[in-house]
Amino acid sequence: MTRPPGAERVVDRAGRGEWTEPGAFEVAPGVHRLPLPLPMDGLRAVNVYVIETDDGLVLIDGGWAIPESRTIFDASLKQLGYTVRDIRRFLVTHMHRDHYTQASVVGREVGAHVALGLGDKATMELMHSDALDEDPNMDRLRAAGAEELAEGWRAMMPSRPPSMDDYGMPDEWLDRDLVIDIGSRRLGAVSTPGHTQGHYVFADEEASLLFAGDHVLSTITPSIGFEPAYVQQPLRDYLASLAKVRAMPDLKLLPAHGPVTESSHTRVDELVAHHDVRLEQSLRAVDSGARTAWEAAGELPWTRRERHRDELGPFDGVLAAFETLAHLELLALQGKVSRIAGATVRFEPLRPA
Ligand SMILES: [Zn+2]
């Protein structure tokens, strides 16, 4: 589309500490990064990417539908000479509220088309059903042997958001891998389950860009399987999705959180190495006597500062429990530990044959 007169084009040079600074930053010709605030969230901001096309704007993700975010969203679009009414389409990487809700709200407001991965449908339907009155995360906390976290979690997280208005169903469910033509660009929509079951990344190989959502983040390790619908092997799915992205050309990495970096391959390799180490550490925890995911989590270092499990706040504690459960479930699938099913899943070293 022709560039609006008087619009500002600022090249993105944000590094590690600067990427949350609001504005519109050009990452490639016609592609802009808009960091939007997440005031109550440790991630601090989410990157929404604006792609200019001959018939309007296509957005990758929409941010979290809260007033602070909307104000900055409108101001950042204005800096480019646009308003929300120029948006034709939202391609949302996954259903987490910091990516999906503002796409849903603005999409309805301006008549833009909203697409989301089919794998997230189970979770979306669960959120819209009465079944959610019992928080499904409780079953997983029990499976991880971390019921002691339940009270802190309930106090922090209402099982149902105060309003489901922000979580309208999308106009389209993306199914398997497909090519989406937007103006003169071709975007590969690549199904990458793991972070959530419906996660997608979008690749513009001609421009050498990977819109990676939360599948590949530049500075932190994405959480895995953090979704109301129960998934037994989120880590297996996630590692398969990393291998899928590694098999694509090496692209500029445009993550949903963190600064843009030059190589998707480099970061995928680091994430794979991270999980190799965690699998090894989880195996050793079982060898040295841990029987539940929560016990094993007590043997592992957490966060970049290598904290102990008990130093984590309630939210991070729950993530640690789920993360360790995912690693142990994969070790069981690989035949490296035995798994004893039950409301709390127990793991034991393999008995020598
Ligand atoms: Zn997410």
Helix content: 25-40%
- Got a strand count? 15
CATH topology of the domain at 25-266: Metallo-beta-lactamase, Chain A
Please identify which CATH superfamily of the domain at 25-266 we are dealing with.
Ribonuclease Z/Hydroxyacylglutathione hydrolase-like
Bound molecules: zinc ion
- The total count of helices amounts to 9
Q: Largest beta sheet, briefly?
A: 8 strands, mixed
**CATH class term of the domain at 25-266:** Alpha Beta
Please give the CATH architecture of the domain at 25-266. 4-Layer Sandwich
Mean pLDDT: 93
- Sequence of strands across the biggest β-sheet: 1-2-3-4-5-6-7-8
Q: What structural class should be given to the helix and strand makeup?
A: alpha/beta
Radius of gyration equals: 21 Å
**Helix and strand sequence:** EEEEEHEHEHHHEEEEEHEHHHEE
Ends apart, CA distance between termini: 68 Å
Low-confidence stretches: none
What is the approximate shape? globular
Q: Quaternary arrangement of the chains shown? A: single chain
Beta-strand percentage?
15-25%
Describe the structure.
By secondary structure, the protein is an alpha/beta fold. It has a domain at 25-266: Ribonuclease Z/Hydroxyacylglutathione hydrolase-like (Metallo-beta-lactamase, Chain A, 4-Layer Sandwich), CATH 3.60.15. Helices cover 31% and strands 21% of the residues. It is built from nine helices and 15 strands. It has helices at 67-79, 97-110, 121-128, 137-143, 150-156, 234-246, 264-287, 293-297, 314-333; strands at 10-11, 25-28, 31-37, 45-53, 56-60, 87-91, 113-117, 172-174, 178-182, 185-191, 200-204, 209-213, 252-255, 337-340, 346-349. The strands form three sheets. It has an eight-stranded mixed β-sheet with strand order 1-2-3-4-5-6-7-8, covered by helices on one side. The protein has a five-stranded mixed β-sheet with strand order 9-10-11-12-13, with no helix packed on it. Strands 14-15 form a two-stranded antiparallel sheet. Helix 6 (234-246) runs antiparallel to helix 7 and helix 7 crosses helix 9 (314-333). The longest helix has 24 residues, at 264-287. The model has no long low-confidence stretch (mean pLDDT 93). The site of zinc ion (ZN) has 4 residues, from loops.
